[in-house]
Amino acid sequence: MLESIGQVAVNVKDTARARAFYRDVLGLRHLFDAGPDLAFFQCGGVRLMLSPPSERQFDHPGSIIYYKVSDLAATHAAIAARGAAFEQPPHLVATMPDHELWMAFLRDSEGNLLALMEEKRPG
To answer: Taking every pair of C-alpha atoms in the chain, what is the biggest distance, in angstroms?
Structure first.
C-alpha cells in the first residue's frame, strides 16, 4: 500500500540557478547536493530533488506542485519581495462547506509552474 510521497523530482535546466531560487526565493531548507547536478530540499515531509532530465524523453514540464501555506497573502508578499514573478496573485478558487480555497501561481527559475494554496477557515 502507498503511504506517502517521499520525494518529487523537479526538472531543471541549471541546477545552481534552481538551487538558489528554491533556497533564497521560496525559502526551502537545502538538505544536500549530490555532485554538480542534484540538489535536495525539504518541504514538510516531502523531499524535492532538483536535477536536469536524465534522458531526452524526460525533458518536459513536470506536474504542478501546490505548496500549502497558512497565510497566502503574507507568503505571496514575502516570496514576491525576494524576486518571484507571479502569474496570478492570490485569488479565491472555490468555496467549500467549511473553507475557502485560495491560490496564487508563479514560475520557478526554470519555467516550472508552481502554486501556493491556502484553505481559509472561518473564524
So the answer is: 50
